[in-house]
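Field: COMPLEX_INPUT
Field: COMPONENT_COUNT = two
Field: RESIDUE_TOTAL = 497
Field: MODE = joint
Values follow.
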Amino acid sequence: MAGDESLHLSRIKANLERRALIYDVIRAFFRREGFLEVETPLQVPAVAPEKYITPFTVNGRFLSTSPEMHMKRLLAAGYGKIFQICHCFRKSERGQLHNPEFTMLEWYRAGADYMQIIRDTERLVLALARKLRLGTKIHYQGRDIDLVSPWPRITVREAFLRAAGWDPFGRLDEERFDVDLVEKVIPSFAPDRPTVLMDYPVEMASLARLRTGTPPVAERAEVFIGGLELANAYSELTDAAEQERRFKQEIDSMALRGENKIAMPQRFLEAVARLPECGGNALGIDRLVMLFCDAASIDEVLAFPWDMA
Amino acid sequence: MDIGEVSRNTKILINGVPFAVEDVKFVKPGKGRAMYYLKLRNLFDSTTREQTYHSGDKVDEVRVSSSDMQYLYKEGDNYIFMDNETFEQHSVPKELLGTRSQFLKEGMAVTVSVMEGKVLEVTLPKFVELAVVRGAASTKTDTITAQSKMVELETGGILAVPPFVKEGDIVKVDTRTNTYVERVTTKK
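Field: COMPLEX_OUTPUT
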């Protein structure tokens, strides 16, 4: 095993060096934009109730599945532009693109909506490509990807009608949604360009703002590059009563499936009442590093993946 | 067990048939359900198939134990093995052994996997040393070329060997590929 470890560590050294450089560029980018780097706890008394995200428990607390709720508590207290790079923990998520302990970049901008956040994302990724002397093109898993902005945008409705042949805004079948997203919709995206998938059914975005219309949509956008689900942006939900109602739905559906009960995160809900209009993004740094290192597996950008920790 | 606990080499039961998990591909949208694409090998007939599971699905794990046994003798179409610890005897049909049966020698140490009393698999030593009893065995399908010829082994197996191998020589056989490795001793 010691041999495996030193082989792994020597093989991925260039990736870890590039990873460190990427952190430098991210920090410089947000500092230049006037953002404050913050830190929030990893052991927390409550996590956001989300159906398909299972927390680890430690000494009666949870390991944080996302810094979102604490960062919004900072926003509610008047911190207008904040970012954080931190570890998140999600039980049983292990695969070629998943490690149960992974690194997230989150940022929030008061006064912004999800599309401004997507434009931040475009600028950040282009800044990274430039600093790594790649110009505006990266080579990932045998393909050239042109990063020039704006990235093509497609609504969830259009993407599903085109690739899966049904309208998730007609009658939403949540189980089919995830299967078709993975097996049909994502593979239908242009391989040589990033894709922004936007405007989700309300049921698929429990922390995003609703835009009224026919049908109403949740202002959520996801960025895909090279087949990797890279980032998830919201116009954040600032209506405390609506937030509580959506969490209640998640808690109820988890109870139906016989899972451990997740408590309502009260401190967060109190903060939502004071939350300014804002947008935010959660970007998986391990996958970002994979893209810039042409790595097929998350293990190639981690010194100590789960099974080797 | 929960599908999330399944990993490579877990053995599961589907409609009474045991399968070994050869590969698990885990795919999950950030906020969505996890999908587990399993590659499964049927432990009865070694055929493979794929099966998709989702978060929350349950599967039946089967316990397969592995025992050291020795080969005793052949009885009709069955091969009799004895557990070295319990001295219990197990009868294994020739279909389960396939072509490997031709390298079984009395007293040979083998590893046998057993599920609820039923033998699933017999693993021979990777290499066995066997005597050549007859040179240039004739078979209907094989042709003798300059590079190799067919010989019969003491266990009845037919093996392609280099031309210099003679009757009475001991040869080393790779039981995973049914191929000649080297000559161990030559008859004086």
